[in-house]
Amino acid sequence: MGSSTTPRPQLIPTLPAESRAWMRRDLAYRLLPFGALVAGVWLRAGRPSWLGIGAGRLPVQLGFGIAGGTALFAAAAGVQLLTTRVRGALRVPASRADLALQAGYYALNAPIEEALFRGLLQGGLGAAVSPSVGLGLGTASYILYHRLGGWAWTDVLATALAAIPLGLAYRLLPGPPSLLGVSLAHMGATCGYIGPGPWLLHRLGLL
Questions:
Q1: Domain for residue 38, yes or no?
Q2: Number of domains, the chain
Q3: Which residues contact 171 (CB under 8 A, 6 or more apart)?
Q4: Do the Cβ atoms of 65 and 183 come closer than 8 Å?
Q5: Strand 89-93 and strand 10-14: pairing?
Q6: Which helix (H) or strand (E) holds 169?
Q7: Residue 144 domain-assigned?
Q8: 198 near 103, Cβ under 8 Å?
Q9: Which residues of 50-75 are buried (b: 16+ CB within 10 A; e: fewer)?
Q10: Could you list the residue range(s) of the whole structural domain that residue 152 is in?
Q11: For 104-150, how does the pLDDT look when each residue is reduced to its tens digit (9 = 90+)?
């Protein structure tokens, strides 16, 4: 009687030139408009505290950001390992140069996305309507907007792994609202799921 084996996923190597190309487009069409929108609201609304532009209670923010980022990196890498078996393919940095490039870009991406979804949407709706409405709509918007970027539904749903705890942390951490902690944790989650996480899984022989 023959034995069946699960086929190994196809690993698609990425190079720095390829990453720089999509990063230039992404920066122009997504991150810069997001950042400009948040900055405009912050200035026109009189620099509101609910937007989270500030350090907050620094030890709390750094503690949550570092611990949460580490935990979310590990969790996201684990989820990526599972979803890759369903998807059948995964993009993995082919060199340390591309690994560093992607990690640096995700460090830029995290605070800008947090400023839009956690600060502007969750914080703004929380101040204008109620904290529960802000938390619900901000979290749902963050999860579903990944579908606009062409993410598969499996990957879109995986973003809830970060969106829900980050939304709760932005609302519940003691001290003034701050994007610092959630941005650090967000960076850990992103790096665990794409770029550095897949690279580490490959190096550990798990892919």
A1: no
A2: 1
A3: 122, 126, 131, 134, 135
A4: yes
A5: parallel
A6: helix 160-172
A7: yes
A8: no
A9: bbbbeebbeebbeebbeebbeebbeb
A10: 110-207
A11: 999 999 999 999 999 999 999 999 999 999 999 999 999 999 888 78
